[in-house]
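Support case: user asked for a sample of complex input and structure output to validate their parser. Sending the pair below.
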Amino acid sequence: MLITRRVEFAASHSCWNPEFAPEQNRALYGEAGPHGHGHNFVVEVTIEGEPEPDTGMVFDLGRLKEILNQQIVAPMDHRFLNREVPPFDRVVPTPENIAIEIWKRVRPHIGDGVRLHAVRVYETEDYYVDCFGGAG
Amino acid sequence: MTRRYRFSAAHRLDNPALSAEQNRAVYGKCNNAYGHGHDYAFEISVAGEVDASTGRLLPPGVLDAIVRGEVLSCLDASNLNDLPDFAGAPPTTENLAGAIERRLAAKWPGTWPRVCRIRIEETRRNHFELRR
């Protein structure tokens, strides 16, 4: 069974790789410059497991909310990701890389008996990525 | 990585191999003689590894360009029954998903991450999904 909890954070980011020429960055990311812009990012974290017979729960949703608030919302909400939230000072904060980073932050807090199944990051309603662990 | 697109089109579900009565029985109100239309929404998902230098699986603008050129430019504001895609098959949403897949596959560069899912919504209450 899969259970999912959703959180939101509002942040600015700039998709701009300083190792690329400005023209290359503009062509690749469609941004005018490295100054940033913002989104209301929506994150869905999905855990896979079976309900425990005594509690009827796969995972304590209150505990999951706490983990997501600590690991995602507290460090990222109302921040400029590139300047204030490592590793985005050196890793371009595309939604792909944000999903990978959230996977790395949340995974150690999910105990035994269940499994982190997916991290979905919506940059907009029409653009989202899913990370299922592994390399990507 | 998933991108969502929208288009509006007319269609009529009618299989000439069936009798008028059979068509009404199979397709119900979608068999209405003069057709009808929907605001469709569909999602294209691609799967693969994130490029380490760009942080992208596939730049969304690049996906937009091929979807605009191969799918939206032909389907939006069209009557689906008039398109060659549906010359031999009624424009059900199932067949529409297959048509979108074939249109993209014809121009899809081999170096791009593969299309792993096409999801299409005919209305808010029904959707169809191809997984690859």
